[in-house]
């Protein structure tokens, strides 16, 4: 840490500290009024609450996020900022000349160029100081020791650095170069305008860099190139020196990097001997750049968002690192001295951040409030209503701010402040010179400085005197809260300053117009708000006048607040009401004086309290107007207060309008009469007041009579004009009748006016109904006619009644006719209905039947178009589309020519489907015709389910079948389904054939439709190889027949008609020319049958089938048939399928033959051949038939042997 200077900061005296008792602490405003005579002498005071008063911290810490302000300490202090601004100007001046400013070292410290420049200028300037040889005196004034020839060094540095700048400021064309010593320190400009929250004006960017004295440069290169020079070609004559006007000696011709003007190096004053490094500016550009106005100073926002925890970590880390000790061990006196040292130096740049003006409305106050997120314990509920709760103090009954309706953040709603070490709040007074109160919830102390309110103007004068440059660019600088000044400096100029350290749990109160500032000792959390007591009201009115002089806007309208308080005077205590009365008297006297100056202008009453503040601000001084304002038609968007009547526009005064607010209602004549009667009844003694009351009452009666006669005459004239009008508006008639209510006389025009009002209202309703024909129905027309019948006769009413009656008659006629056209049988054609609609379209009314007729015609047209499109280009219609068209046509009450032909087609299709169903379907078949004709997607699964489960799956199967059958729209899909059918059925056959071999106990097997164990006579399906109880399938057409293949109920899905009965069905379907799924399935069935016959013929020709079968039976393994001794329960096969053990081609050929839903002779031939070969193999093979037959005799009660082709297990 840098050591302190010998001239250390001297702490000002302490402000008073008050410690109220519980009784005094109960009423905050009463206590503040009690301590005010003492505390207002110091401007600020500190209040320590009773020790037991410890409100809970209610702020939502998790939700509190804020972006702090960045504060560079040496930019805050007014005199230091003036120095920095001066050095930045000097640095910019030399930078534009291609030179870099370096701060000289004198006596081992940086030279204060600002002080040197100021002292030389105060002594008459450079020439005067040199002439009178006062440089040694200048050195003494700057604090250098005498006798060391410091004056000559100061002269050298001034002449080298400051003198060219001062000459330039006077307008001389001096453009020198700057030579620096190697010991000088580089000066880095602060660039204050570029870092402010108030953005600087746009400046010309210096992007080009000229390199002069080059011999060859192309004059045609673009202006955006970084190098600009003058070449030696003949074209250089276009560059002329602006001083001598000559283009000669082009090697000495310089080009300005700002405007491209040319100058000879020897024409400049003084001449340049060396080429400046960097960019170079001509005198004109230099004056333009350096003459730009200074930008308003403001704080820059930080680049990151903080939570309370992250900001605290940063703040504690900064303080401990800076002082190299724990934060709680740093003495407050050391922090205070170091703070004022840092703000007064330009050598050290220390930056801190301050979370100021955080809205408590968004994140919650540190004090508990009703309805907030913080849950208050029962013992802490008193803090909700405490007057010292900063949420309550501005709005308690005795507070003036209660009557300001707007919720002003920071004034009526508290603001939160999160500080760190050195973060500061600058010298300022509160808005409207109100009181302020600050409570430190927790954290390290906050150091305060304050000045009494009566010294405010003196403090402002001292700061303007010591830093006039800042106030030239910002006259309201002290209202921006961005400038501080050392309290010692202010005290040295006669301004009394007082200080205090506010610790956690303490209040600091500032009084009206008391300037205050301070800084934070470390990480802390504070909350502040404004309040106004009745003693503040005169000060508040003075503040509005002060704001008017500064052209500063008001936070609220003081006049409006006073008027609202006066309207509620009966609810106030006497002291507050008396203060309001005194302030209102001052307000009215001032308003009367101002209105006397503009009395000749026309006036109108307005209600400014209903407008937002920004719409009633004076365009000159920005004060908020309430009692009155001036406007002009030439500029309707602007107004001015009466203080600036001459600043509104250049129009003559009689063009302006005085807008005023009506504050009070005058007493009526009846009130005056009642007062006079009361005085007579009670026999009040004669007095000036009573005589004045009687005189005023008499004058009021005379004025009332004259006024009444005037208003009656005006009423009669207006009545005559309206009654002569053929069609007066209802609004004018009603307005005139309303006027008659205030006239206490009989008027003959009233009855006629009422009649005309009823007629006008009826005509207005009729006109409105006619303008909206889509809502003018028959009932509305009948109701309007009934109402018109009761009106007094009038030409307009008669004409309107006639039009309504004609429209009603026509509408009723067409409603009946439209209904008849739709209900007629036989129906009318489309052309007839369209012709009727042509006449209906001209009727301006809402006719439901006619609209229904129009919809019917539109439906018929759409249907006819779809019917024509259906067979366009020889397309074959789909049955579903055809059926949908026919069903829709039956709901349209219109004659449709194609309907009969389409119905005939649908009838033919139904007849064909019935014929096909009789051909294929068995009696009581559970399958539809389409299911029979199409291949099965899930072949053979039904046999594995119980009866109950199959019953439950019927609905699901129907849905599933409907889904996949809808997909069978082409032969490719059917072929895929056929392939799946073959694969699943072959897998099922293999599973069923091995089922009996794999089971260890017959009792565990589940076969047949009954899903029970095999027992007794069993039948085996030739297609799926599953076994069934003979008793379960007997008594139906499922009985086995000799020399024929037996199919189970699941595989026997249709009658399987012969092919010659099926082919005519396909031929008849082709004649119908309608496409339906059953037809596609039948076509696929026939094609599949033909392909199978071809395969069968090929196999017979090659002799493969019989030879392969014979070989396989001859070499069949013992596992080809079930073993006779593997089951404990005996049963035998009454009909066994042919076991196939050979190549899959033969098995697939036979399986597909049985799958075909037609009967073919080739199928029977194949079956018989395979049966004979199977019998031959059984005879030749050594088999335990003998023992098997003995076992069968034991189990057969008749003792007979099983029939042929039966196997006993």
From TrEMBL:
The record's subcellular location field reads: Nucleus
Keywords from UniProt, A to Z, are: Chromatin regulator, Dioxygenase, Iron, Metal-binding, Nucleus, Oxidoreductase, Repeat, Zinc, Zinc-finger
MF terms (GO), sorted A to Z? DNA binding; histone H3K4me/H3K4me2/H3K4me3 demethylase activity; zinc ion binding
Chief site of localization? nucleus
User: Which residues lie within the region annotated Disordered?
Assistant: 1174-1209
Q: Where is the JmjC domain?
A: 382-548
Name of the protein in its database record: [histone H3]-trimethyl-L-lysine(4) demethylase
């Amino acid at each position: 840490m840098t050591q302190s200077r010998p001239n250390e900061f001297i702490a000002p005296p302490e402000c008073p500290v008050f410690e109220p008792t519980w009784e005094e602490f109960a009423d905050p405003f009463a206590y503040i009024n009690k301590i005010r005579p003492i505390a207002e002498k110091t401007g600020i005071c500190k209040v320590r609450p009773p020790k037991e008063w410890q409100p809970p911290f209610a702020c939502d810490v998790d939700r509190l996020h804020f972006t702090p302000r960045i504060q560079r300490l040496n930019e805050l202090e007014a005199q230091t900022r003036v120095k920095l601004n001066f050095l930045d100007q000097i640095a910019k001046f030399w930078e534009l000349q291609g030179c870099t400013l370096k701060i000289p070292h004198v006596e081992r410290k940086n030279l204060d160029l600002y002080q040197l420049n100021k002292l030389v200028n105060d002594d008459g300037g450079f020439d005067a100081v040199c002439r009178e040889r006062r440089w040694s005196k200048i050195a003494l004034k700057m604090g250098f020791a005498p006798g060391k020839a410091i004056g000559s060094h100061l002269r050298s540095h001034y002449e080298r650095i400051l003198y060219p700048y001062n000459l330039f400021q006077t307008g001389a064309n001096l453009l020198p170069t700057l030579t620096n010593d190697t010991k000088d320190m580089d000066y880095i400009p602060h660039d204050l305008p570029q870092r402010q929250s108030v953005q600087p004006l746009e400046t010309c960017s210096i992007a080009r860099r000229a390199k002069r004295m080059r011999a060859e440069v192309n004059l045609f290169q673009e202006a955006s190139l970084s190098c600009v020079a003058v070449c030696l070609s003949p074209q250089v004559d276009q560059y002329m020196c602006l001083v001598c006007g000559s283009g000669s000696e082009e090697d000495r011709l310089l080009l300005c990097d700002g405007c491209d003007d040319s100058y000879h190096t020897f024409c400049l004053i003084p001449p340049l001997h060396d080429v400046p490094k960097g960019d170079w500016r001509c005198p004109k550009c230099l004056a333009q750049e350096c003459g730009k106005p200074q930008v308003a100073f403001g704080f820059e926002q930080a680049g990151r968002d903080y939570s309370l925890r992250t900001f605290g970590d940063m703040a504690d880390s900064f303080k401990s690192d800076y002082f190299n000790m724990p934060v709680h061990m740093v003495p407050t006196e050391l922090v205070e001295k170091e703070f004022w040292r840092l703000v007064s130096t330009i050598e050290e740049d220390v930056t801190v951040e301050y979370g100021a003006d955080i809205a408590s409305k968004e994140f919650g106050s540190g004090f508990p409030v009703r309805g907030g997120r913080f849950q208050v314990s029962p013992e802490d509920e008193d803090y909700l209503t405490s007057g010292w709760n900063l949420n309550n103090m501005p709005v308690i009954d005795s507070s003036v701010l209660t009557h300001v309706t707007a919720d002003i953040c920071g004034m009526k709603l508290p603001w939160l402040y999160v500080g760190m070490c050195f973060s500061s709040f600058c010298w300022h007074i509160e808005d409207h010179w109100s009181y302020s109160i600050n409570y430190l919830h927790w954290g390290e102390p906050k150091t305060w400085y304050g000045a009494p309110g009566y010294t405010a103007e003196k403090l402002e004068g001292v700061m303007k005197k010591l830093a006039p440059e800042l106030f030239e660019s910002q006259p309201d600088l002290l209202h921006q809260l961005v400038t501080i000044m050392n309290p010692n400096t202010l005290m040295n100029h006669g301004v009394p300053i007082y200080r205090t350290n506010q610790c956690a749990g303490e209040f600091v109160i500032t009084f009206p117009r008391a300037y205050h500032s301070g800084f934070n000792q470390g990480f802390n959390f504070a909350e502040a708000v404004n309040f106004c007591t009745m003693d503040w009201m005169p000060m508040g009115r003075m503040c509005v006048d002060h704001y008017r002089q500064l052209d500063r806007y008001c936070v609220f309208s003081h006049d409006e607040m006073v008027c609202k308080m006066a309207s509620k005077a009966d609810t106030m205590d006497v002291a507050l009401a008396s203060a309001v009365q005194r302030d209102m008297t001052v307000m009215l006297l001032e308003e009367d004086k101002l209105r006397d100056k503009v009395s000749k202008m026309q006036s109108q009453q307005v209600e400014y309290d209903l407008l937002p503040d920004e719409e009633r601000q004076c365009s000159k001084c920005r004060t908020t107007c309430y009692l009155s304002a001036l406007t002009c038609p030439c500029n309707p968007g602007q107004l001015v207060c009466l203080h600036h009547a001459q600043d509104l526009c250049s129009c003559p005064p009689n063009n302006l309008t005085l807008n005023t607010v009506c504050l009070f209602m005058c007493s009526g004549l009846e009130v005056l009469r009642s007062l006079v009667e009361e005085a007579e009844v009670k026999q009040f003694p004669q007095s000036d007041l009573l005589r004045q009351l009687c005189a005023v009452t008499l004058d009021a009666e005379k004025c009332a009579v004259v006024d009444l006669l005037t208003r009656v005459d005006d009423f009669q004239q207006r009545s005559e004009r309206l009654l002569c009008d053929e069609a007066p508006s209802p609004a004018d008639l009603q307005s005139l009748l309303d006027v008659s209510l205030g006239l206490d006389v009989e008027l003959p025009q009233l009855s006629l006016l009422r009649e005309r009002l009823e007629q006008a209202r009826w005509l207005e309703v009729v006109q409105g109904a006619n303008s909206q024909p889509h809502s003018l129905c028959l009932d509305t027309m009948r109701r309007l006619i009934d109402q018109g019948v009761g009106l007094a006769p009038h030409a307009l009413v008669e004409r309107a009644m006639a039009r309504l009656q004609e429209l009603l008659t026509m509408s009723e006629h067409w409603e009946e006719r439209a209904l008849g056209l739709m209900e007629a049988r036989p129906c009318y054609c489309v052309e007839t209905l369209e012709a009727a609609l042509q006449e209906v379209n001209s009727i301006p009314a809402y006719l439901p039947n006619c609209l229904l007729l129009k919809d019917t015609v539109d439906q018929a047209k759409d249907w006819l178009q779809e019917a024509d499109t259906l067979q366009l280009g020889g397309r074959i219609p789909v049955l579903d589309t055809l059926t949908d068209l026919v069903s829709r046509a039956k709901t349209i009450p219109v004659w449709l020519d194609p309907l009969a032909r389409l119905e005939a087609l649908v009838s033919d299709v139904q007849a064909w489907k019935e014929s096909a169903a009789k051909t294929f379907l068995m009696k009581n078949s559970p399958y539809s015709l389409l299911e029979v004709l199409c291949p099965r997607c899930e072949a053979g699964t039904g046999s594995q389910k119980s009866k109950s489960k199959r019953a439950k799956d019927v609905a699901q199967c129907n849905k599933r079948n409907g889904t996949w059958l809808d997909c069978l729209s082409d032969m490719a899909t059917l072929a895929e389904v056929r392939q799946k059918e073959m694969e699943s059925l072959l897998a099922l056959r293999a599973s069923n054939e091995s089922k009996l071999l794999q089971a260890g106990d017959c009792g565990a097997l589940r076969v047949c439709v009954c899903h029970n164990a095999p027992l007794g006579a069993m039948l085996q399906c030739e297609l799926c190889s599953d076994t069934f109880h003979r008793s379960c399938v007997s008594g139906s057409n499922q009985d086995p027949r000799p020399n024929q293949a037996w199919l189970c109920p699941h595989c026997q899905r249709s009658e399987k008609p012969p092919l010659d009965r099926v082919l005519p069905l396909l031929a008849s379907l082709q004649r119908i020319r309608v496409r339906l799924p059953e037809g596609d399935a039948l076509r696929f069935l026939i094609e599949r049958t033909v392909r199978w016959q071809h395969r069968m013929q090929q196999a017979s020709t090659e002799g493969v089938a019989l030879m392969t079968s014979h070989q396989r039976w001859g070499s069949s393994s013992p596992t080809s048939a079930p073993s006779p001794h593997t089951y404990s329960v005996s049963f035998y096969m009454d009909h066994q399928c042919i076991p196939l053990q050979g190549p899959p081609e033969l098995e697939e050929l036979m399986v597909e033959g049985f799958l075909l839903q037609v009967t073919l002779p080739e199928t029977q031939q194949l079956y018989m051949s395979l049966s004979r070969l199977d019998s031959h193999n059984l005879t030749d093979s050594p088999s335990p038939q003998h023992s098997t037959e003995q076992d069968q005799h034991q189990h057969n009660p008749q003792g007979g042997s099983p029939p042929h082709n039966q196997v006993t297990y």
